[in-house]
Design goal:
Mean pLDDT: 92
Low-confidence stretches: none
Structural class: alpha/beta
Radius of gyration: 23 Å
CATH topology of one domain: GMP Synthetase, Chain A, domain 3
Distance between the termini: 64 Å
CATH superfamily of one domain: ANL, C-terminal domain
Helix content: 25-40%
CATH architecture of one domain: 2-Layer Sandwich
Length: 506
């Protein structure tokens, strides 16, 4: 037997491999119940029969409106084994968002994880779905669009899942991710994190996001390790799980790291996690202050990476043997190529920055039913435009902004993440978001929205003075606006297009 399912051709072969080789090993914990690989394989079998009985065939779309649970994962693999395309959607999306995606992908079936999610239950009731029998009690199903055409066999067998982008800048797009791309990333991720069957991983990030489904779920299963699956993040509950289940690997978006540290500060005694060996922050930019706080609290390096839905995971990651003191996204993953280019697609000087272009085995096939959008991103020679701005120094990538978020002021480029990093360092600021506002002279103003720590006073003049001491004049916010809560999507990313809409509305 090999160490991992290295010869798998589809993602469905991952759990099957471990069910055959280590059937009694724990694959998941859910609500403190251990589920072995043998039991999980049985759930996939039942899910396969259930979907097939309802007419699902290769090339159909199966929409799963869910919050994290083992049943969701089993149905995901069952649909994929049928050659159908599972589409995982976070149940915390609004009815409008769910309906927009449903109308676009035209699924044959919709499934709802009502057993773990009140939001999924509400969507299920609107769809008049029916509850399934054992072992999927609490999972609801409804036939949605039985007239929708199945995708051609040649395409159906390549695509493992249709993953919709989080839509932080507008309408979400359906990314066609391949079996080969996800398997490649699972292998790379397992290797880069030194994952083994002895590891225990905490999984609370939504499986509807590439971080949750690829970096955490698929990579953990690929390694034959155990995953504690949680539907929602609660700092106190997460602390208990980390200690009681001897979690070895903790990966989260920056917002969750902030919430965990904030909870620790309320305790009389700092918690201890002797089994943790690997920490990772992804799904957004990493700030120096947060990195320093996490590392001093846990006594471990906080690793970082750079990835995106359109590449089935991460393209860069900080190696375990070479942790970094800065906030670089690390080194290029095996199989991936990178170019840093100007607006004409020409490579920039080594000091950059420029737009990041990527090419490699993880590249998506394209956006579903959106050939024009696909052609704007994918080049004929395989290079993919990420829309992000960055530079490479001594082999390490530094991401400085989304190209669409970059602010033009006084002839200079202002990268919001730099201004946000400064503001987030102020003791009264809980979280900030910076956007540009068009000025009458054709320039752009730097506008900052801030959440203030509970009980703290908002003093915009003091915050401006703080920023002025740390930023060049053209980077300083012209206005700082306090909000009760920044608009976030289900993955913890700030919805900056909503902030810009607020500015336009006055």
């Amino acid at each position: 037997m090999t160490a991992y399912p290295a010869h798998a051709r589809t993602i469905g072969e991952i759990p099957r491999y471990w069910a055959a080789h280590t059937p009694d090993a724990v694959a998941f914990w859910e609500r403190d119940e251990a589920i072995t690989f043998r039991t999980f394989a049985g759930l996939i079998d039942t899910g396969y029969a259930l979907l097939a009985a309802r007419g699902v065939v290769a090339g159909d779309r199966v929409m799963i409106v869910a919050e994290n649970c083992v049943a969701e994962i089993a149905l995901f693999f069952a649909a994929s084994e049928l050659g159908a395309w599972p589409i995982l959607l976070n149940a915390r999306l609004s009815e409008r968002e769910i309906e927009t995606i449903r109308a676009h992908c035209r699924p044959r079936l919709q499934l709802f994880t009502s057993i773990v999610s009140q939001d999924a239950r509400a969507h299920s009731q609107r769809a008049r779905a029916r509850s399934l029998d054992a072992p999927f009690v609490g999972i609801d199903v409804t036939e949605t669009d039985t007239s929708a055409a199945s995708e051609p066999q040649a395409l159906a067998t390549k695509v493992a899942t249709l993953l919709y982008t989080s839509g932080t800048t507008g309408a979400p797009k359906g990314v066609m991710l391949t079996h080969s791309g996800l398997l490649h990333f699972a292998a790379v991720s397992t290797s880069s994190r030194r994952l083994t069957p002895a590891d225990r991983v905490y999984g609370v990030l939504p499986l509807s996001h590439i971080f949750g489904i690829a970096t955490i779920m698929l990579s953990t299963l690929y390694a034959g390790a155990a995953l504690y699956i949680d539907p929602r993040f609660d700092a106190a509950a997460a602390t208990r799980v980390l200690q009681r289940f001897e979690i070895t690997t903790l990966q989260a978006v920056p917002l969750l790291w902030r919430r965990l540290l904030s909870y620790f500060r309320t305790l009389e005694r700092a918690p201890v996690f002797p089994h943790l060996r690997y920490l990772y922050a992804g799904g957004g930019g990493l700030e120096p202050g947060l990195k320093a706080d996490v590392e001093s609290t846990f006594g471990l390096p906080l690793h970082h990476g750079y990835g995106m839905t359109e590449y089935a995971g991460s393209m860069f990651i900080t190696p375990m043997e070479r942790p970094r003191k800065d906030c670089s996204s690390g080194e290029l993953n095996p199989g991936c190529e990178v170019r840093i280019v100007d607006t004409d697609g020409r490579e920039v000087d080594s000091d950059g920055p420029g737009e990041i272009w990527i090419r490699g085995p993880g590249t998506m096939l394209g956006y579903y039913n959106a050939p024009q959008l696909t052609s704007e991103v994918l080049q004929p020679d395989g290079w993919m435009k990420t829309g992000d701005v960055g530079r490479v120094e001594n082999g390490a990538l530094f991401v400085v902004a989304r190209s669409k978020e970059m602010i033009k002021r006084s002839g200079f480029n202002v990268y919001p993440i730099e201004v946000e990093s400064v503001l987030n360092g102020h003791p009264v600021v809980k979280l900030s978001a910076v956007v540009g506002r068009a000025a009458a002279d054709g320039n752009e103003e730097v506008i900052a929205f801030v959440e203030i720590e509970p009980g703290a006073a908002f003093d915009p003049a003091a915050l401006k003075e703080y920023a002025s001491a740390r930023l060049a004049p053209y980077k300083r916010p012209q206005e700082i606006i306090a909000v009760n809560a920044l608009p976030l999507n289900a993955n913890g990313k700030v919805l900056k297009h909503e902030l810009k809409a607020r500015l336009q509305a006055g």
